[in-house]
Amino acid sequence: YSVDTRLFSLHSRALTLLYSEVEAAAERSHDVFVGTAGSVIARQNASGFRFYAHQFYGPDGKRKEKYLAGPIGSSEADAAAQTLRLRIQETKALVPTLRLLGREGFAITDPKTHATVASLHNRGLFRAGAVLVGSHAYGVVLNRLGARAAAWATTDVDIARAARLPVGFIDLLATLRESGIEFVEVPELDRKRPATSFKETGRSRLVVDLLAATDADRPTVVDVPELHAHAAGLPDLGYLLQETQPGVLLAREGCCAVRVPVPERFAIHKVLVSAHRRRNPKSEKDLLQAAVVSAILAETHAGALESAIESLRPKARRTFANARRALAPHLTGHPRAIEALGIEA
After folding, report:
1. Cis ω for the linkage preceding 96 (within 30 of 0)
2. CA–CA separation, 2 vs 141, rounded Å?
3. Per-residue confidence band for 189, with pLDDT thresholds at 50, 70 and 90
4. What is the pTM of this model?
5. Distance between CA atoms of residues 125 and 282, nearest Å
6. Alpha carbon distances (Å) from 95 to 24, 104, 122, 148, 256
7. What is the CA angle 236-315-319, rounded to 5?
8. Which among 19, 38, 66, 239 counts the fewest CB atoms within 10 Å?
């Protein structure tokens, strides 16, 4: 019998068009719910004051309620309630499509990840140039390429910036908490080094890592004053962030617009990252994601991988030349990708 060594399959044109409509809707939305869309309800306090409230389920699955406006009957409060009702209606209209895409193999994220990313979206970070990277970006890239492949579960949300973001001043930790999730800084082993990661309190493994491009040859810490935070400065990250594209992070109850690397640079950078952490279990994940995206590009976007390789700095190109051999076992069913990456038989 034959063994299927194909790493991906392409979605039907009908599904890719449906995804494109969702992406366009997400691009138009500047405010995204961090939980379910919920509903507008009327409330009255002990003194008889009647007001509108927004009732919804948060990313933790618990029902929540937030004051919206009052008193009921005033033009301002009624207008605020109507505006929110329209937003709720628009989001709920997308939910059946989101669930369909999830059932058909599009990458769908969990409620807490969506809420976390949505809180950053609502503050305009992605419009300002912040980039979603890592495994969640991998899912977005697959969706944009119209491809179905094995998912990779992760609890890390990686956010990167190439240069100072034109956002005025935003407190990143406070922004993350707007998701309804209680985040705290993750202290470094060296107490003198500022934190570059944030995690949900308790036993949760949800972590947000802030990354930044650096010209240094080794990892360092970069001050990010516009976010009142620090980032892990990583070599070659600038290469990844030099070319980016819009995308949309899908969840079952909503979606939000993000920015992700172009797929060819994503694939090549994953190979570089795998070379820097050969003895780390995540190295195999990097190689598999690089192989999947490379296989798709080689068969659907001729020349993209070759162009991305040519754009590497000389030192990074040497690292890539040595590391790409490790991709070969994953690409046995994709000879065009092996050829495009310059992997010798």
Report:
1. no
2. 30
3. confident
4. 0.93
5. 27
6. 15, 14, 19, 20, 13
7. 80
8. 66
